[in-house]
Amino acid sequence: xxxxxxxxxxxxxxxxxxxxxxxxxxxxxxxxxxxxxxxxxxxxxxxxxxxxxxxxxxxxxxxxxxxxxxxxxxxxxxxxxxxxxxxxxxxxxxxxxxxxxxxxxxxxxxxxxxxxxxxxxxxxxxxxxxxxxxxxxxxxxxxxxxxxxxxxxxxxxxxxxxxxxxxxxxxxxxxxxxxxxxxxxxxxxxxxxxxxxxxxxxxxxxxxxxxxxxxxxxxxxxxxxxxxxxxxxxxxxxxxxxxxxxxxxxxxxxxxxxxxxxxxxxxxxxxx
Length: 272
Fold this sequence. Notes:
It is a single chain. The chain is an alpha/beta fold. The chain folds into two domains: 34-60 and 140-269, HAD superfamily/HAD-like (Rossmann fold, 3-Layer(aba) Sandwich); 62-135, DNA polymerase, domain 1. Helix content is 50%, strand content 10%. It is built from ten helices and six strands. The chain has helices at 3-27, 62-71, 76-97, 103-118, 124-132, 143-152, 165-175, 197-207, 221-230, 258-269, and strands at 50-53, 156-161, 183-186, 214-218, 234-237, 253-255. The chain has a six-stranded parallel beta sheet, sandwiched between helices. Strand 2, helix 7 (165-175) and strand 3 form a beta-alpha-beta unit. The chain is globular, with a radius of gyration of 18 Å.
């Protein structure tokens, strides 16, 4: 599946996803979010000492859904769309209702629903084969040289992802990038999902740094907004060229790839 096809799939449910995240954010309002103005936390006196990555700026999820389409040529595209949508929705619904189930199980539940919705006869072997794709995700082509450069700058690197620790570690080992990451943080540790503030708090608790010293690198606009609400300096690696979410939380930087993230870090270091 090329990027244009992926964009077409994403556009089919992006509006609904934005409405859903806004509703979920309201449901989580019992925990106070920070509505800090742009660049308040990202200042010239606070050096970025660590980067907390969502999984998908590093790992490329597109082959998972290409595999669905090759396995089920007639219903595959629709099934992929439903699977992706339900994967997000189930995370947010369970967060809002405080009915936690980890990301592996949520992903499997979403897959089963997608098969039923599209009339696909999903055998146990089919399900295992599709689920196992999430244990062997490959990295995007621009990732490795950037990880090398960031480590040379002395910046600690970690994940802060909704994926389970087991899923993250499996993908890390598959891609042989263990030596670049100091920590693997899963929101499973908080038994919740982003954008719940207690999931972002895991970064501070694990890295033992101030929040203004941790740059959060997001893959989606809603995650960039969630991290910004929490108070992290935030960079959105907007590989799909989406518009910013209308959530009154603007990332400190936006780029289309990992190289843009390095440029952002270098610019920040010039003012220290």
